[in-house]
Amino acid sequence: MKICVVIRTKALEYSETFIQSHINNLHAETLSVQSFPEYIISKGGDFAKQPFIKRYIRNAYHTAKNVLYEKRIKEFLLGNGIDIVLAEYGMTGVKVMPSCKKLNIPLVVHFHGYDAYRKDILDEFKEQYKELFSYAKALIVVSKDMRNQLISLGAPSDKIFYNVYGVDTDRFSEAKVNLSPKQLIAVGRFVEKKAPYLTILSFQKVLDKVPDAKLLMVGSGNLYDICSKIVKSLKLEKSVMLYHSLPHEEIALLMQESRAFVQHSLIPLSGDSEGTPNTILEAQACGLPVVSTFHAGIKDIVINGETGFLLDECDITTMAKYMTKLLEDAELAASLGRKGRLNIVANYTMEKSITNLRKIIESCI
User: Fold this and answer.
1) pLDDT above 80 for 33
2) pLDDT band at residue 70 using 50, 70 and 90 as cut-offs
């Protein structure tokens, strides 16, 4: 069985390690759709208001480009003897679907997060998603919420498979949390749905009771500069350290030196949502307890009160309370963390995730 993993861009985002693991462990060919033309998806809005001749020319131009690129995709799939396609993200599935249809190649679509939730994406791809749900042999989701979301969008429930990402438990090995300093760590993109500014505001409250506590925040994104200014304006520079994206080996080391992992995920006005944050899986593999929100797949992988503490979105007071509790009680943090590590080893290893993924793909041939 020869698999082709279709990705959005030629170079994966630093946070998309889960996609790289699919490529590596499935021994798949890789096709990027970065250079694909933009399809004319919506006929409404500004496009509908344009003069007829302008719309006609634009449609003709895109149609010609679509034909050319579909030809190139088909040549790639045929030339490499591809038996089945795994499209990473729903929009990627839409773009590769016409070629798969014409070649009668089975298509599996892996949804990850914003592709299933963000309002602008759902508006743009509404009709194409319906066609995708009909043609695809399988739709993979990474949270139970996402399963329900796809069903609400019209996906048949019998095509949906729940398979969470896996963790390399050797790289993210168990830390000695009971001996750790009073340091919290947050790893993730500085974007709306991760609300890093709320993590900072929560931590500010922590300092009233644990003045020697530290918060490390690692990532990049459009809110990075804003968060940097918040730290400066609150005079937290000695307590909060911001780092741009770091290699995963360095992140694993920082987790080894921390007491707990913190993340305040929420649903912004855009409707965006997490799938299941890979960094929370990695942190638990290191034996760190997690303080986060009842959001998307987080509540699937963090057992509230047993492997960490969960709270409602935007509740920074409760988040600060749980942060403080773990900083003041290293033995409690270690106990929760050990249970988290056991949960990861039992249910969320890389081997288990890839084995399940391969079984799903094989069932579609």
Assistant:
1) no
2) confident
Give CA–CA dist 262/187, Å, rounded: 8
pTM: 0.91
The b/e string for 263-297 (b: 16+ C-beta within 10 A; e otherwise) is bbbbbeeebbbbbbbbbbbbbbbbbbbbbbbebbb
CATH of 3-165+350-362, one of 1.10.443.10, 3.90.1170.50, 3.40.50.2000, 3.40.50.1980: 3.40.50.2000
Of all residues in the chain, what percent are helix, strand and coil, respectively (each to 5)? 50, 15, 35
Q: For residue 167, what is the DSSP state?
A: B
Whether the domain at 3-165+350-362 and the domain at 177-347 fall into the same CATH topology: yes
Q: Which residues lie closer than 8 Å to 182 by C-beta, 6 or more apart?
A: 210, 212, 213, 214, 259, 327
From residue 177, give the alpha-carbon distance in Å to each of 202, 255, 335, 336, 337.
22, 10, 9, 10, 8
Q: Where exactly are the structural domains of the chain?
A: 3-165+350-362, 177-347
DSSP states of 301-351 = HS-BTTTEEEE-TT-HHHHHHHHHHHHH-HHHHHHHHHHHHHHHHHH-BHH
Q: What is the largest CA-CA distance in the chain?
A: 71
Average pLDDT over residues 199-227: 98
Residue-wise DSSP of 197-212? HHHHHHHHHHTTT-TT
What is the fold of 177-347?
Rossmann fold (3.40.50)
